[in-house]
Every structure is written in structure tokens, then in C-alpha cells.
User: What shape does this take?
Amino acid sequence: LDKQELFASILDRLQAEGCTLADFLDYAFNPKTPHTYDWRWKGFFQDRVTIERIFNHWTSSSYNKSTRAWTNDWATKQVERVVAQESASITDSGILRKSSKTINEEFFLDYSLRELTQTLQTLAPTTFRVLDAFSTSTRQARNLSEKWKSKKELMEGSAILTLLRSRSQNNSFTQAVHSTYLIATGAQRQHFGVLSTLGISMGYTSVINQHTYRSKLALDVNALNNEPVPTRKRTLGTLYLLSQACMGTARKVAASGLFVVVYDNINMMVRIAEQILGR
Assistant: This one.
């Protein structure tokens, strides 16, 4: 018998015995099923070309819409599972956890979106493949220059950093850097309301907060009862922590030896007309 006749006879036998092809494949690929021959690897998965052709059959227009929709839904769920694992891996690694980092000069000077994107590409290769497919046209894939490819990778990295912030509030390292830059260049409070909603920055108070928060209601109630005032701790702002770190560095420099600092043309302003840092 040639192959086609053999396969046809096997299918006819399955039908005669009241079995389906799905029953047969479920038996063959069940990890608990014992085989005298390695059918799962040597008999199937080793032949990648044939397997890909089978998958392509299922998603081609030769099959009805319900079959194509079911196949697409199954494949999508597999991708969802993989990218969720990658996202969890990045979060668990702590590379974006602001609370685990010391906020000082290096916190900002060592920040590099390109290096961070390269790290994310290593930890989430499937996610970047999905974004590549989503953001690259057929024409771009043929004529994509190295300069534009590098720029597009940064855009994908920025998008993933924003989405990771929505996964966990602890993934706030990049938002902390962006927020401090914004406040230093004169961004208004309203800007923070918009940008924090988009996941690009943190809230305004997360940047400028300088003290432990106590609610007015708690102050009033405890004052009447002559009780100690409980405090609700709020994380100190990144701008305040940066200023403390810089003052610490200045003290170390001052204590290291004899030096001279010259201030020229100091202008003292009682009313600050602009919010830009240093004016």
C-alpha cells in the first residue's frame, strides 16, 4: 500500500470502530500513554516542516470560519500565557522597583532607556515580537533602516514600561525619573495629572512630598481626646530625596580638603514667578 491508501484505511478503521481522529490523536499525544516507539518526538515534533504545514491548513481559507476562529483563539491564549509569564518575570526581577533603589545622583545619571529596553528584550522576547508585528508594516519590514529600527525599539520599550506600571505599582523606576525631570523643567501640576494617567509619570505629590502625612480629621479627633496623633506614612518625594543626596555629597566634598567656591551675581527673589527648578 502507498501512504495515501494506508492512511485512508486507518481512517476507515477508526470510523468502523466508532472512534474519531480526535480520539486517536488524544491517545497518541497524552503524556501518560506508553509507546513502544517515540511517536511524539520522532514521529511528529521532529518534522517541523510538516507540523507547520498542518497548522497552516487549519488557518487557511480552505477550512470553515469556525475552525479558523477556534484555532486563532487557541493560539492567542498560548501567546497570552507566555507574555504574562514574561511580565511576571520582569516584575519579580525588581529592575523597575523604585523602592529597592537608593535615590541619589546615580539613580538618575545611570538611567538609560536604551539599556533598559535591551534588558527587557532579553526578559520578554515574545512580547517584543508581538509589538514588532503590531507596529511594522510590510513595506517597513523590507526597507527598515538601522536608525529607524533603533528608534522603533525605544518606542516599544517605552510602551512596555508603561504597561508594566499598570501591572504593578512597584514598577515605577522610569516614571520616577520622568517625573523628576518634568518638575525640574517647569511642568505644571495639571501636566502630572494627565501624564500619570497615561502611565508616563508618577503623581505630583510623589515628586515633591517632603513630610509624613497626617489627616486633618485625625488631628482634630485626637486633640479632643488628648491622645497621640497617629501618622500615615507617605513615601518621601523623589525631588526631596535627590536634594538630600546631593547635600550629602556636597558635605563629603567639603570635608575632603581645602577648596574655594565662588558665587557670582546672586539674585535673590522673594516671589518665584516661574516653577522651573533653579529660577
